[in-house]
Structures are given as structure tokens and as C-alpha cells.
Design goal:
3-stranded mixed sheet; alpha+beta; 10 strands; 2 domains; 3-stranded antiparallel sheet
Amino acid sequence: MESGDTYFKLYRKIYDNGLWTDPITLRLFLWVLGQAVYDVKGLSYSNVVVHRGQYLRSYRKLQEDLEYVHNRQIKKYPLSTLTRAVDKLIEYKIITKLETELGTLFTVINYDKYQPLLNNNATSGESRSSSKQDLGTEPGTTCEQLTNNNNKDKKGLLCQFDEARKIYPGTKRGLKTEYDDFTKKHKDCSTVIHLLKPAIERQIKNRESLNKRKEFTPAWKNFKTWISQRCWEEEVSSENTVVSQLSLITVSDEGYL
């Protein structure tokens, strides 16, 4: 079934929240809602299954999707604008999101409630494999749908690791590659994984402090090296611990004390 032959429901209570007065966020919501998978069988992207009510897309492709004309020129929303719009939809409890290597996995909350199936046999036309060009991203795996097993503990660890990987400023590889290295090299991975993100955040702040004081700031290692060397265990000195020797000299009217 072609998308032009289908429709989705839009309830009138959309007028009652802040979404209606925010054209950019409204356009984004309508696009995600209209593009979300309708078929109960879902869609297959490489080894990733996107379920009913979900939509997988990169932010840069969303920029193209939401292009508009202004003063006879085609314009795109800045990425920062789209990010704020997504955050608003999450704040309104309309969608949730999960960052993945394939793009952002958007889930429309209560999709089944507001977009019920027309009959018991969902259209099979949507249940198909899609190429990476559809997403505008490179092949990869998602955090929550990396495997088809129901091991919630494993998924939880993977998501914790991905949160740390995403904020790491240095060079990094794909989620699965980095995570596999981490679990193979460190037998205590499950007990130390919660330390990664806080350690990276501390080191980021420390480097920012060094830059402000115009002191030597070490370059970031590759994430693989950072993990291999257990750099989350490094102690970061606060800026107050570095004291110049001259500051220890006290001067009085009578001379040096």
C-alpha cells in the first residue's frame, strides 16, 4: 500500500497543549506520526527491527524532510532547533527517543491506542527490508534492539555503555565494536560500567578548567585506548590543588616571613 493511500488519526485535544502554538514542533510531530511504522510486523533495517509505532531517522535526514520555502529559497531548520523540538515532544510525553548508530529511534507513545489497526490483518506491504540510504546513516546496531533476546540486564548494560560512549570527546568506533572490546578486556565490566560516564564528565570539566587557566591540556585518547587502560580510574585533580610556590610567600612591612 502506498503512503498516499493511507491516513492517520489526529485528535482534537492537540489544540489544548503547547504543541499547537509551536509550528516547528508541530510539524515534526506530524512527520514522525505519519512516518511511524503501522504494520504489526515492523520494518527490517539490516539486522534491526523497528516496531509498530516507531520511526528510525537521522537528524540530518529530518532536516531534509522538514524543508520549507522562505523568500523563494528552500530552508532547513538548524540541528539545534530540531533537537529542541524533539525535547519538547518528550516533555509533552508524546514521544520517546533512543539514540542509535542508525539514527534516532522515535517511539510514539500510545500509538496503538490512537492509531488502531483497521482490521486484524495489517498490511504486509510495509513489512520489508530497507536500505541504509532510507535512513541517511551508516549500517550499525541499536542499543535496545541490538539482539532479539529478552535479556534486560544485558540491554541495560549496553545502554549505560552507549551513554558514556556518546559523550566521550575523543575518537570512537561503533557501539557494538567498542562494547565487545570492553566486555572482553574487563571481566568486571558489569560492576564498573556505571563508573564510565561520571568519569568522562569529570575529565571533561577538568580539561575545561585547564583551558581556562591556559595550562597544558592533554589530548583525548581514542575511546578504545581509554577503555583498555581503565582511564575511568584516573584521579582528576581539582584546580585548587595546584598552588604556585609564589603563593606561599607572605609579604609584610618588615619583609618576607
